[in-house]
Amino acid sequence: xxxxxxxxxxxxxxxxxxxxxxxxxxxxxxxxxxxxxxxxxxxxxxxxxxxxxxxxxxxxxxxxxxxxxxxxxxxxxxxxxxxxxxxxxxxxxxxxxxxxxxxxxxxxxxxxxxxxxxxxxxxxxxxxxxxxxxxxxxxxxxxxxxxxxxxxxxxxxxxxxxxxxxxxxxxxxxxxxxxxxxxxxxxxxxxxxxxxxxxxxxxxxxxxxxxxxxxxxxxxxxxxxxxxxxxxxxxxxxxxxxxxxxxxxxxxxxxxxxx
Length: 259
Ligand code: MLT
What we know:
By secondary structure, this protein is of the alpha/beta class. It is 47% helix and 16% strand. Strand 2, helix 1 and strand 3 form a beta-alpha-beta unit. 46% of the residues are buried. The site of D-malate has 7 residues, from loops.
């Protein structure tokens, strides 16, 4: 089943991939700023936003990536720049593994190349079982807010309220599928040296989920990879939308890339 796709603006296509428990609307600020120059394409992963439930079968990032490529095909979109944050970054690596010829540039925000440690894998499976048992995502709303946002952002209603709304729109099946897919994901460290398109990495100094050193390590592994650090938590594009927009504009808009 194809994930929901949101297609705004015109120009070279950019595919935005959202973080765990969020949805395509995570990128609203970026679409508002960039869709005059770029075709901004966003998907809601299964069970999030407006997407249908996940398919039956073994959850995997490969499953998401295959569906995202099919969603691009459905819009006749061949090559894209990919912008992925956290789980969206894990998925960007999977897209590179499956279809590198379709990627013209990569922006990897607040993500890591490595697989899970054993303990985190166990925690993911526990959360998957919990939301399925409760048939509700309510019990994960506040714990996820605390992980996703810095303390300052948690105190800003205009940031935190939409984050709560996005988490509540996810279904238990969507959350369980995502956690099991992330738990099963392969280590992408060995893939980094094969990335031969322009790559920008964005880290957050206050990221409680993925320490900035781990994020910068991605750029160290990619030939010519560049990395920057912003003073924010895990979801950099929601906490510092203008700074992220400026970086994306400079990196992705062809006229500016050439100048
Ligand atoms: C995310 O923000 O996408 C996830 O929380 C990342 C993770 O759980 O590894």
